[in-house]
Amino acid sequence: MSIMLWGRLNSANVQKAVWALEELELPYDHVPLGGAWGGTDSPDYLAMNPNGLVPTLRDGELTVWESHAIVRYLSAEYGSGLLFPMEARDRAVVDQWTDWTATTFQPAWIALFWNLVRTAPEQQDAAAIARALAATSRCLSIMERRLDEAPYLGGAEFTYADIVAGVALYQWSTMDIERPALPAVSAWHERLNGRQAFRKAVNVPYDDLRARSAF
Ligand SMILES: N[C@@H](CCC(=O)N[C@@H](CS)C(=O)NCC(=O)O)C(=O)O
User: Which of 15, 51, 54, 206 best tests ligand 1's pocket when mutated (most atoms within 8 Å of CB)?
Assistant: First the structure.
């Protein structure tokens, strides 16, 4: 039975799973779900993912949801020594950036995206946008210092930490905002853009999400 992935491809959390699958060259079937497709509240879907959000991944008998758990699973199962460092000490640094992305970086940049892109212009709150931009810029300045000393967040090698954080780069670089100069982050973005899996998973236009705050 091949790997199945449920979720709309314009979701950053789904893009993490797609990027990991493509990076590992794994065959998979994809079911668009959530957003304009709906289906997250169907009994069948909730039986797999009681959280009712995307993505969900099934691999044989295993069903797993939460994008970071999915990326970590794929990396450990199919990318040991590749996306998934074998040494616990190396993995600790990768997990540090992965968990920081979940708790700090992603909430900041998603707030910016919601306030600026998903909220209709007449309902936008300039102060909320400014706060979200400041929080996102602060996170990126932390990444700037890290990427000034190492080519990837985990260190010398590309890992799943780059996947979970790197999905932000398309939105960040295309949103209508004033961006601070971040040369190390820009160089990292260029390095990631050199990967086919990144381009396929992440460089996905989001015009159909503009002024769509219902999901
Ligand atoms: N912490 C979850 C968050 C999942 C989440 O918020 N997914 C959003 C899309 S990015 C969702 O399902 N929204 C409802 C929808 O698209 O219908 C994860 O990382 O997987």
Answer: 54
Q: To test the ligand 1 pocket, which listed residue (13, 40, 72, 212) has its Cβ within 8 A of the most ligand atoms?
A: 13
User: What is residue 90's three-state secondary structure?
Assistant: helix
Are 95 and 171 found together in one domain? yes
Task: Write out the two tokens for 74.
Answer: 């794929």
pTM above 0.70, yes or no: yes
Residue 117's CATH number? 1.20.1050.10
CB neighbour list of residue 81: distance below 8 Å, 6 or more residues apart: none
| pLDDT 10s digits, 146-190 | 999 999 999 999 999 999 999 999 999 999 999 999 999 999 999
Q: Structural domain of residue 104, as residue ranges?
A: 88-202
